[in-house]
Design brief:
- There is one protein chain.
- With about 150 residues, the protein is an all-alpha fold.
- The chain folds into 3 domains: about 30 residues; about 45 residues, no CATH class; about 70 residues, no CATH class.
- The protein is elongated.
- The structure holds heme C (4 copies).
Length: about 150
């Protein structure tokens, strides 16, 4: 009787640890970034665009080497964006289909692929298409809302 019970108990724990191992290796979130925890307060104060949020980007994926105090983070400039989005020419080529009407925002007839990202894109606030400052209505027909 007794040994059966022990066997049962041992078997139970073997299964239990196998299951928890599986859960731990598959379901667990990626390890927290070294210094900055993404608290609900920070996420609310510095909301991240949906296209980046769905990739689970963390503060420090963009604010690299900016220390560990989120209140001290600064804008990341073209260099920050291009650390993931490659080059301005690469981005211009991705929207090449818009060249036909000369309305590729990443390769405009005025400036080519030279503009700063933050002339149009923001991260924690809505983006603001610079072309609109002169082409107030036609731009809305040329291109999508700036993501
Ligand atoms: C996809 C890149 C990206 C991610 C992820 C990101 N930021 Fe930013 N952050 C920016 C950019 C770009 C700016 C420049 C201002 C803007 O575009 O909103 C900025 C500016 C800031 C600033 C300066 C505020 C200002 O008004 O200049 C702070 C502070 C900041 N971010 C905190 C955070 C925190 C905290 C997180 C995580 C919850 C975070 N950021 C995640 C790109 C990012
Ligand atoms: C840590 C890497 C990373 C950084 C830094 C980053 N991005 Fe992204 N971003 C991505 C990835 C990955 C995607 C999804 C795949 C794609 O569209 O390239 C994306 C998607 C986007 C999209 C949406 C594309 C669509 O289909 O609508 C925009 C717009 C964008 N990023 C702009 C920016 C700008 C502007 C910056 C700088 C403020 C920036 N990103 C910084 C990784 C990054
Ligand atoms: C003149 C305004 C403007 C500038 C400057 C600009 N963008 Fe854009 N961007 C847009 C607009 C508008 C779209 C949407 C285009 C469409 O689909 O109609 C867009 C789309 C995107 C996309 C998604 C489309 C794609 O090719 O995958 C990414 C990623 C992106 N921008 C990143 C950047 C980065 C990084 C920079 C800086 C090197 C930058 N943009 C500079 C206006 C701009
Ligand atoms: C400082 C003002 C200003 C800004 C900013 C500006 N444009 Fe223009 N754009 C003009 C003027 C002026 C003309 C020539 C007159 C006209 O055709 O409307 C022009 C002409 C054009 C034309 C030719 C229009 C046609 O009818 O053939 C295109 C396309 C265009 N711009 C695209 C853009 C794009 C894309 C942006 C953003 C990257 C932009 N412009 C930003 C002032 C501006």
């Amino acid at each position: 009787m007794r040994s059966k019970k022990t066997l049962f108990t041992v078997g139970f724990f073997v299964i239990l640890s196998a299951v928890s191992f599986l859960i731990a290796s598959e379901g667990s979130p990626p390890p927290a970034s070294p210094h900055v925890a993404m608290t609900p307060e920070l996420k609310e104060k510095y909301p991240i665009k949906a296209h980046h949020a769905k990739l689970s980007l963390r503060c420090t994926d963009c604010h690299e080497k900016q220390g560990d105090n989120p209140e001290d983070f600064k804008a990341i400039g073209d260099e920050g964006c291009l650390s993931c989005h490659k080059t301005k020419q690469y981005l211009a080529d991705r929207l090449k289909f818009m060249d036909a009407l000369h309305v590729n925002p990443h390769n405009s007839i005025h400036d080519g692929p030279k503009l700063y990202c933050d002339e149009c894109h923001n991260e924690h606030k809505p983006s603001d298409n610079m072309c609109l400052s002169c082409h107030s209505n036609d731009v809305k027909i040329w291109m999508r809302k700036t993501p």
